[in-house]
Amino acid sequence: MEKEDWMREALLEAEKAGAIGEVPIGAIVVQAGKIIGRGHNLREATQDATAHAEMIAIREACEATGSWRLENAQLYVTLEPCPMCSGAMILSRVTEVYFGASDPKGGTAGTLMNLLTDDRFNHVAAVEGGILAAECGQILSNFFRELRERKKAARKKNTSNSLENKVE
């Protein structure tokens, strides 16, 4: 399979997150041409700050392999990893990281900094961004646009209810 095919699998995970009201980010871990870990954001559902797509995919991959070392594994994620997730990739020895959309507010795979290729750590990973970047960015843009529209509609409804109560 090509990088784009693997990223489409990560996008399927992102769609699962969006369907339950989570920020639509998805990740997969691939080793020897097979998906050994999948994850999508579950922060809101679990109220766990560490329930990022990458963290869940890494945990699942470690369980599948019976090892915390994910050497010769590739991780695909729809949004550039944050510092926590980049740290987990370093610690789990992921070999290659591919991401879709860049994250100008928290990306540590090249945007704000690149933790994954910093040779001061005991492990470095190859990094490539921009895989299906438009699709990965669009799913996030759609989610946040719909969220803003829902909030605006709720404010409008609350305002009209307040006015009706004053009239009575």
TrEMBL record:
Protein name stated in the entry: tRNA-specific adenosine deaminase
Pfam families: MafB19-deam (PF14437)
Catalytic activity: adenosine(34) in tRNA + H2O + H(+) = inosine(34) in tRNA + NH4(+)
Cofactor dependence: Zn(2+)
EC number(s) from the headed UniProt entry: 3.5.4.33
Keywords of the record: Hydrolase, Metal-binding, tRNA processing, Zinc
Catalytic site: E54
Molecular function (Gene Ontology), one example: tRNA-specific adenosine-34 deaminase activity
Family classification: Belongs to the cytidine and deoxycytidylate deaminase family. ADAT2 subfamily.
SUPFAM superfamilies cross-referenced by the UniProt entry: Cytidine deaminase-like
Cofactor descriptive note: Binds 1 zinc ion per subunit.
GO BP term, pick one: tRNA wobble adenosine to inosine editing
Organism of derivation: Enterococcus canis
Domain CMP/dCMP-type deaminase: 1-119
Signal peptide: none
Function per UniProt: Catalyzes the deamination of adenosine to inosine at the wobble position 34 of tRNA(Arg2).
Assembly mode: Homodimer.
Binding-site list for Zn(2+): H52, C82, C85
